[in-house]
């Protein structure tokens, strides 16, 4: 066998050397091949671009409103168990964690999606300064670089487009948008993205002790935030409807953004009864602000003589904003969606996470 292979190997070596000399002497011969490869790659991308554009034009907002109305339809008692059992089987819902396990208790799909959990099933991590705000899967995490955030590996979106202009902060043109958010040059800006699947617990909680100063609502599309779609649609999180809560925590800037998705037009924030998402009409690129620092009478209608009002979910409203305790319930989705955390922290902050790992409310995200 060795004797048979040796001539073949020698012949291959001579042929490769010959082809190498021909290639070096005539580089123009490679150009048609390179052009053909480029042409084929462009042809392959065209259908994908068309599919993305077609998907973007799909009436996802209308479908989401229709789905929302369907969720509010009361089901006959005899139909509830088979309908919910099918959903449980399809999406792997763990009903043993639900505060009420009896499926007949939930009058409609909306109540079933927003089911509460038993108090003991989501303990808060004592060793971490930051905990998960939701049940789900970690899509991405890390430092924000050059005012760009990764929605999935290799696909970024603009931090400024995502959060919008920051009023009341320095407008120094020589500083990046990312630097304008930081209160100290000794800190960095970090991010983490949690994807909630349809079978996950749909409420989201406060990941830290912090003060919410502003709610900014961005009307927009309601495309799926499934990781497969997030890899294809650039700046997906900037295009979709979202509610950004921003303020301060012990290390500086802090923001929690609930991103809507198909069939998730309804985003509810417990301490903000004025918030209305997925309206029939909206202006593209617009956003609506509500400041909690100068709170109006409606927010403070339950205020005591000291000017402090308790709000649903465990927060406290005052003239300095809405103070949220770590683990307090903040709001809920109508179905699965995405939570994006952006926060300032010392440079030595480290994540205790792995890409794609499953995580639950109260589990640690990182530490100092």
From TrEMBL:
Keyword Transmembrane helix: yes
Localization of this protein: Lipid droplet
Enzyme Commission (EC) number: 4.1.1.65
Keyword Membrane: yes
Catalytic residues, chain numbering: 135, 205, 337
Biological role stated in the UniProt entry: Catalyzes the formation of phosphatidylethanolamine (PtdEtn) from phosphatidylserine (PtdSer). Plays a central role in phospholipid metabolism and in the interorganelle trafficking of phosphatidylserine. May be involved in lipid droplet biogenesis at the endoplasmic reticulum membrane.
Source species: Dissostichus mawsoni (Antarctic cod)
Cellular component terms (Gene Ontology): lipid droplet; mitochondrial inner membrane
Major localization listed first in the record, in broad terms: other
Site-annotated residues for Cleavage (non-hydrolytic): 336-337
Gene designation: PISD
Pfam families cross-referenced by the UniProt entry: PS_Dcarbxylase
CC cofactor note: Binds 1 pyruvoyl group covalently per subunit.
Protein name in UniProt: Phosphatidylserine decarboxylase proenzyme, mitochondrial
EC main group: lyase
Self-association state and partner proteins as the record states: Heterodimer of a large membrane-associated beta subunit and a small pyruvoyl-containing alpha subunit.
Topological region Mitochondrial intermembrane: 45-368
Mitochondrial matrix side: 1-25
Keywords, ordered alphabetically: Decarboxylase, Lipid biosynthesis, Lipid droplet, Lipid metabolism, Lyase, Membrane, Mitochondrion, Mitochondrion inner membrane, Phospholipid biosynthesis, Phospholipid metabolism, Pyruvate, Transmembrane, Transmembrane helix, Zymogen
Pathway noted in the entry: Lipid metabolism; Phospholipid metabolism; phosphatidylethanolamine biosynthesis
Gene Ontology molecular function terms on file: phosphatidylserine decarboxylase activity
GO BP annotations, alphabetical order: phosphatidylethanolamine biosynthetic process; protein autoprocessing
Modified residues (Pyruvic acid (Ser)): 337
UniProt cofactor(s): pyruvate
Catalyzed chemical reaction(s): a 1,2-diacyl-sn-glycero-3-phospho-L-serine + H(+) = a 1,2-diacyl-sn-glycero-3-phosphoethanolamine + CO2
Family according to the record: Belongs to the phosphatidylserine decarboxylase family. PSD-B subfamily. Eukaryotic type I sub-subfamily.
């Amino acid at each position: 066998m060795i004797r048979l292979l040796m001539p073949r190997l020698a012949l291959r070596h001579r042929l490769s050397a010959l082809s190498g000399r021909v290639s070096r002497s005539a580089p123009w011969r490679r150009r048609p091949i390179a052009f053909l490869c480029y042409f084929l790659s462009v042809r392959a991308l065209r259908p994908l671009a068309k599919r993305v554009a077609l998907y973007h034009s799909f009436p996802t907002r209308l479908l989401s409103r229709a789905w929302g109305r369907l969720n509010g339809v009361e089901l006959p008692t005899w139909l509830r168990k088979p309908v919910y059992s099918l959903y449980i089987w399809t999406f792997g819902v763990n009903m043993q964690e639900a505060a009420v396990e009896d499926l007949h208790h939930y009058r409609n799909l909306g109540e079933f999606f927003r089911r509460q959990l038993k108090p003991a099933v989501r303990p808060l991590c004592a060793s971490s300064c930051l905990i998960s705000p939701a049940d789900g899967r970690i899509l991405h995490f890390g430092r924000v670089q050059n005012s760009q955030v990764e929605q999935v590996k290799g696909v970024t979106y603009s931090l400024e487009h995502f959060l919008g202009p920051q009023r009341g902060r320095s407008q120094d043109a020589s500083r990046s948008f990312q630097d304008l958010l930081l209160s100290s040059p000794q800190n960095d800006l970090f991010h983490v993205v949690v994807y909630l699947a349809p079978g996950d617990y749909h409420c989201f909680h406060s990941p830290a002790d912090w003060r919410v100063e502003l709610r900014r609502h961005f009307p927009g599309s309601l495309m799926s935030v499934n990781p497969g779609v997030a890899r294809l649609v650039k700046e997906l999180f900037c295009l979709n409807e979202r509610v950004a809560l921003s303020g301060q925590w012990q290390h500086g800037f802090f923001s929690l953004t609930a991103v809507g998705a198909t069939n998730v037009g309804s985003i509810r924030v417990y301490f903000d009864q004025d918030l209305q998402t997925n309206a029939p009409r909206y202006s593209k690129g617009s956003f609506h602000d509500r400041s909690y620092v100068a709170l109006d009478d409606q927010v403070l209608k339950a205020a005591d003589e000291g000017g402090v009002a308790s709000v649903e979910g465990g927060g406290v409203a005052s003239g300095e904003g809405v103070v949220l305790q770590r683990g307090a319930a903040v709001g809920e989705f109508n179905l699965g969606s995405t939570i994006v955390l952006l926060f300032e922290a010392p440079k030595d902050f480290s994540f205790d996470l792995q890409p794609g790992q499953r995580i639950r409310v109260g589990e640690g995200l990182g530490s100092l």
